[in-house]
Structures are given as structure tokens and as C-alpha cells.
Design goal:
Elements: H1 2-17, E1 23-26, H2 41-59, E2 65-68, H3 70-73, H4 89-107
Parallel strand pairs: 1-2
Helix pairs in contact: 1-2
Length: 119
């Protein structure tokens, strides 16, 4: 599949450019498709993309590749506008807080100064 080929190429380039530095992949953010009773084509495609990113992460653990689940970044549908896809202002702020919290343990070993407990 084209997505997998391109994602693997990107991860390979990033890990080769800065060996030992973390590379962080993020699955698709929570949206309406995550809550459909009967999955549609978009939901199935999203699940495939997420599965591929998880596999790439497993395949490259020894190269400091990490995965953050998008559903942990957008942890509540109330972060999204009425289309249940795009975040509103509060949603962007919540995403930033969640992402900072999830990135902290990955990036802390590479920081030259201490990172705040509450970003």
C-alpha cells in the first residue's frame, strides 16, 4: 500500500538523519468515525492507517520510534466542532495539553533543562 511505503520511507529517513533521536508517530485523532456502529469506508481506512503506524513503531523500536495514540490527544468528542472532525479553540488547547503530557516522557532524556510538570 502506498501509505505504508511512504510512512516507512519517512521513518527510515528520520531515523537515519539523527540516529538515537526520537521519532514520534501519531495515529488518527478521535473523530466521528471512531464511534460508528457500522464501520464505513473511511473508518476502515483510518483503522488501516493506524494499524500500519503501530506496526512501523513495533518494527523500529530499536531505533527510538514511538507511537502516540491520536485518541489520547483528542480524548473527548467535546473538543471537536459540530462536524465531529475539526477541533474548536478549546479543543486545540486540550490537544496541546494532552500532546505535551504524552511527549514529555519521550523527550525528557533529550532536554537540556527540566521540563515543567504542567505545560
Amino acid at each position: 500500500e502506498e501509505f505504508e511505503k511512504r510512512a516507512r520511507h519517512l521513518v527510515a529517513r528520520c531515523t537515519a538523519a539523527k540516529p538515537g533521536r526520537p521519532v514520534i508517530l501519531i495515529t488518527i485523532f478521535r473523530n466521528a468515525a471512531h464511534h460508528l456502529v457500522t464501520p464505513d469506508e473511511i473508518t476502515i481506512r483510518q483503522e488501516d492507517f493506524d494499524r500500519i503506524l503501530r506496526q512501523i513503531t513495533r518494527d523500529h523500536r530499536d531505533r527510538n520510534v514511538h507511537l502516540i495514540e491520536g485518541v489520547d490527544v483528542v480524548d473527548d468528542l467535546s473538543c471537536l466542532t459540530s462536524d465531529l472532525l475539526h477541533p474548536h479553540d478549546f479543543g486545540h488547547a486540550r490537544m496541546a495539553e494532552n500532546l505535551a503530557r504524552l511527549l514529555k516522557p519521550i523527550l525528557a532524556p533529550f532536554s537540556t533543562h527540566s521540563l515543567p510538570d504542567n505545560p
